[in-house]
Design a protein that fits this description.
Elements (H helix, E strand, L loop, with lengths): L3 H48 L8 H86 L1
Helix pairs in contact: 1-2
Keywords: Bacterial flagellum biogenesis, Bacterial flagellum protein export, Cell membrane, Cell projection, Chemotaxis, Cilium, Flagellum, Membrane, Protein transport, Transport
Main location: membrane
Protein name: Flagellar FliJ protein
């Protein structure tokens, strides 16, 4: 049997589920921005590596320095790609958590809607019962007076 308190508790649970969904959306958005940042960094460093050429450096010491710089840059690109892969995995987990939170919220929303409908039907039945009793009393009074 539905009660106003049960409906209020379900509405509270729905608000809590919605706040959980909002938090998960924020996490997904942050992780997505992080992976985009990694991708931009990688593309910039790869572009920088392409523009570094041995023909641009006339002096042997500068060529060695440029080679060491390019090697360091390639190592950094490799590390950024690893971080990107980890970020993508984190993003996938965060999206899965978001979907779970959304489904929990939807279940709570359906439960709340069912409880509200049951409570409304209960109120309508009580009102109809009261109306029927009033009509019956009026009928019996008219019959007794006649």
């Amino acid at each position: 049997m539905s009660t106003p308190q049960a409906v209020q508790r379900l509405e509270l649970m729905l608000r809590l589920r919605q706040s959980d969904v909002d938090k998960q959306e924020t996490v997904v958005r942050d992780k997505h921005q992080l992976t985009q940042r990694y991708q931009k960094n990688i593309s910039r460093m790869e572009s920088l590596c392409q523009h570094l050429g041995a023909s641009a450096v006339p002096h042997p010491a500068l060529a060695i320095n440029a080679g060491a710089f390019k090697h360091s840059l390639l190592n950094l690109i490799s590390l950024q790609k690893q971080d990107l892969a980890l970020g993508d995995a984190d993003l996938a987990v965060a999206r899965k958590d978001l979907l779970a939170a959304v489904s929990r919220r939807e279940v709570m929303d359906k439960l709340g809607a069912a409880e509200r409908m049951a409570l409304q039907m209960q109120r309508e039945r009580a009102l109809q019962k009261q109306s029927d009793e009033t009509a019956t009393q009026a009928y019996l009074r008219r019959r007794a007076d006649a």
